[in-house]
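Exercise 3.2. Students should predict the tertiary structure of the chain below and write it as structure tokens, then compare their answer with the key that follows.

Predict this chain's 3D structure.
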Amino acid sequence: MDLKAQKDADLISAQLANQSLSDRLTAMKEADLISLRDSIDEWCVEHQESKWGHRFWIIVVMLGVFAFIQGVTDIFVSGVSLLDIFLIVLGSITSFSWYVGEKRRRKNKILLAALNGEIAVRDYKGNLSNKSSKKSSNKSSKKSNAA
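Answer key:
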């Protein structure tokens, strides 16, 4: 997802924080919904997790947690050193990066599902209103033709 799409997604989530997602989506224009859905869908396609990429990321996170634990235990056992502080900082950054990435991925998937649902509901309502307007216009034209 490009920067504009991420800003749009963040704006949606921060704009009306006390309203539910469905209320926020119903208030949006259809063009905005479609553009946001397209940009989030592009992001999801770009960040599709391959089997090995996901495994590699889990290994990196486990190494980061191990580095953090190693740094903390070394501080308790042998005292504070620069290497221990480096291990703690490295482990913290790695774990935080994983957490933020997973959180963003989950939010984007939930938002994409909600956007697709809202667009489907609007299409369904639009088709119903078109059918009802066609029926009413057909009935009025039949009445005028019969008279």
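Discussion points: The chain has one domain: 24-146. The first helix runs from residue 3 to 15.
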